[in-house]
Design goal:
membrane, 13 helices, LrgB family protein, transmembrane, CidB/LrgB, mainly alpha
């Protein structure tokens, strides 16, 4: 059995399939732990998969670029997966239309708070200008965040890391925070998760409730649009 696994690993490690296989196995392992331990947010499958991949790449000496060449297919599927979020949104369209005025206010306040609170906290701890600019778009999905970061003088690679950390932290502790501040409406809970934690927060909202998932997808999309339009404009206006 061990010989078979060794032969399989030698074959996979020499081809782009290694990255794809590692990604799928790591996520399935994370999902197994998540399901077995009562679907608790602290055992977020994305967080577990990231940790498993980091340990595996470190132990095997595989460079990240080599791994990512094989994982491109999963990266490509992010686009169709994002578009598929329109399905639950369509199913909840009447709820969205009734809540439109409140959503506009929540979007503007939530988007500004997500960016300013993180930048202000990092500034208080003495972060560099490049770090502050990289941190500002951390609540929107990676492709948009990296593009915005590049436009305003941040470091796109650092922004990508901060985006993933933001999503994992919000998906892990978001439910606890929302319960603490007594936000019980599924529309508000979902929209808040989407605005604060992009796709990872939206995935968590979909696991909990369909209405929350629909509003999280809407929040993610609108926050991405608002950040891409407003953040570069505000930066060039004041700096």
């Amino acid at each position: 059995m061990n010989t078979d696994l060794h032969v399989l690993w030698v074959y996979l490690s020499a081809s782009p399939l290694a990255g794809l296989t590692l990604t799928l196995v790591a996520y399935q392992a994370g999902l197994w732990v998540f399901e077995r331990l009562g679907r608790r947010p602290v055992f977020n499958p994305v967080l577990i998969a990231v940790l498993l991949l980091a340990v595996t790449l470190s132990l095997t000496g595989v460079e990240y670029k080599t791994y990512f060449d094989g994982a491109q297919f999963v990266h490509f599927l992010l686009g169709p997966a994002t578009v598929a979020l329109a399905v639950p949104l369509y199913n909840q369209f009447s709820e969205v239309r009734q809540s439109a005025p409140a959503l506009v206010v929540a979007l503007l306040v939530g988007s500004a708070a997500s960016a300013l609170s993180a930048v202000a906290l990092a500034w208080a701890f003495g972060a560099s200008k490049a770090t502050l600019l990289s941190l500002a778009p951390k609540s929107v999905t990676s492709p948009i965040a990296m593009g915005v970061s590049e436009q305003i003088g941040g470091l796109p690679s650092l922004t990508a890391v901060l985006v993933i950390l933001t999503g994992i932290i919000a998906a892990t502790f978001g439910t606890w925070v929302l319960n603490l501040v007594r936000v019980k409406d599924w529309r508000a809970r979902g929209f808040g998760m989407g605005v604060a934690a992009h796709g990872i927060g939206t995935a968590r909202a979909l696991q909990v409730n369909e209405v929350a998932g629909a509003f999280a997808g809407l929040g993610m999309g609108l926050n991405g649009l608002a950040t891409a339009m407003l953040l570069p404009a505000l930066y060039h206006l004041f700096f």
